[in-house]
């Protein structure tokens, strides 16, 4: 499942956070989070997606736009 990292990066900035801040809040090493954001080959687990959504107060629509590939919508 490839994620839409541009939207995710924007949401992180909107909340005044860094990727490292989000990583810390979801209990992930910041380098792992950065690799998952940067590399299409590394994907977030469902649990990680839920944790990110909670930290960023994402709506269901935002979660769908960020985490679901276009061809599955």
Structural class by helix and strand composition: mainly alpha
CATH architecture: Orthogonal Bundle
Q: Determine the number of helices (DSSP H or I, runs of at least 4 residues).
A: 5
| End-to-end gap | 12 Å
Low-confidence runs (pLDDT<50, min 5 residues)?
A: none
From the spread of the alpha carbons, the general shape counts as globular
Number of domains: 1
- Strand fraction: under 5%
Radius of gyration: 11 Å
Can you tell me the CATH topology?
434 Repressor (Amino-terminal Domain)
Task: Write the H/E string, N to C.
Answer: HHHHH
CATH top level is Mainly Alpha
CATH superfamily: lambda repressor-like DNA-binding domains
* Overall residue-averaged pLDDT value: 88
Protein name: Helix-turn-helix domain-containing protein
InterPro entries: Cro/C1-type_HTH (IPR001387), Lambda_DNA-bd_dom_sf (IPR010982)
GO molecular function: DNA binding
